[in-house]
Each structure stands twice: as structure tokens, then as C-alpha cells.
Design brief:
Largest sheet: 10 strands, mixed
CATH topology of the largest domain: Alpha-Beta Plaits
CATH class of the largest domain: Alpha Beta
Distance between the termini: 17 Å
Helix content: 10-25%
Structural class: alpha+beta
Order of helices and strands: EHEEHEEEHEEEHHE
Length: 255
Amino acid sequence: MQNFKLTLQYDGTRYLGWTRPEKDGYEKTVSYRIASVLERMTGEHITLFAGAKTEPGVHAMEQIVNFQTESPLSSEEFRTTLNRYLPRDIAVLNCEQVPERFRADLNAVSRTYEYRICTAKIYDVFTAAYRTHIYPAPDKDLMQEAALLLLGRHDFRGFSGGRKKKKTEKELLDVHIISDKNEDNFLILSLTADDFLYQMPALITGALLEIGLGKRPPESVSDILSGREKAGVLCNPKGLLLRSVQYNCNSSAIY
């Protein structure tokens, strides 16, 4: 049995997320497209394990996935054939064989999402598909003030749109809002956590944007965490992407 690790990029615009139940449109997901090609290559049922489960419309710059197979095909053969038959909005950047114990979902120690905002008066048509246009620009200082209240381990059920049966306590490791030094009128909101609940990146981003636009005070994030307020609206998914999934490289379960 071989275990392969894939590093992927994809444009999530036309997909219903990384995966969904079959009754909810499984065939319109990124995982379905990849598994379908792998199953044709191997003649086996393939299960994909992902470092993060991105949601409808959300992109990925560096998604990590693994699968196991009895096929004798090499990592280069998998990478080349996948890129030949996958849609042009999904790319396999790398494929490598890893120890059998490695699981992209279970071994991940953190995930980073970015939200990209164009603050120019007139948006750039060549980047508009991957950035949300907000003019005038939201107040970075107010957003950062609110973001500091989210850092650490909390019950984030107020920032989740999913069912609350699962454990909802997560640790937000880093939140920052930065201007790109090489490009005017461009903001990036970065979120890193040990894990994210369903819609958690989009709801946190949406709340911080409302604060930056003066629609709610910074301390409202504490009220959302305590359940006294609702998170509000989801951010526009076209500006949201999975930036990376982090692993402990010293773990014997990986290398």
C-alpha cells in the first residue's frame, strides 16, 4: 500500500467547496473531481483526506491532501496524469510518497486563511475575481483591535454556521491585517488557527469588516463569543482563500 501526499491549488468559484454529502451536490466539489481521476487511474475506490475543508466559492493556494492506493504508479505519474485530466481550475503542484501513518487532516497543526481586499475607488478587472472590492477602505486599526480579542483558545460556536454537536473550542493563533508593500489599495486579513469550524473564517472576516466599516464596535466580538450577539453576515467568498496548512516537520508520523 502506497500513501501519497498532494499539494494542490484551485479556484473555488464554481465548486460547492472541498466536499459535501452526496445528496447536497457531491459531484460539484473539488474532492470529487480529483477522486474521479484517481479512481480511473487505479481502478480502486479512493478516499481523500484534506488538511482543510474549504467551503463554497473559497479558493486554495496550498491545500494538502493524501490518499492510499495499491497501484504501482509513481508519484510523478500521478502528478502528471492528474494535471492532464483535471479541470484547468485545479492544479497538482507536487505529489510525493509519504509514510503510511501520515494523514493530511489528522497531522495538521494549523491552517492559515487569507482574505484579500481591493480598496481602490475603481477595482482592477484583472484581479477582481479573487478580491473583494471595498471603498472607502475599512479601518485597519479598529479591525486589529477587535482581532486581538479573538486570539487564544475560545468556544467559537458563535462564529460557526454548522451544527453544534461537535467540539467548538478552537485556538486562534494569529490574526493580522496588513497592507501590501508592493501594491497600493490592497489589504490582506490573515487568520491562523489550530483548526476552523464550518464557516468560521468567513464569519470572523465578516464581523471584522463590519467593525472596520463602523457598523459595530470592536468589543462586539466578545459578545459574539459569549453568545450575546450573532456574528452577522458571511464575507464574500471570492476574496477568501486557504493560504497554507502547517505540519510539524519533526514528527515521525510525517517524515
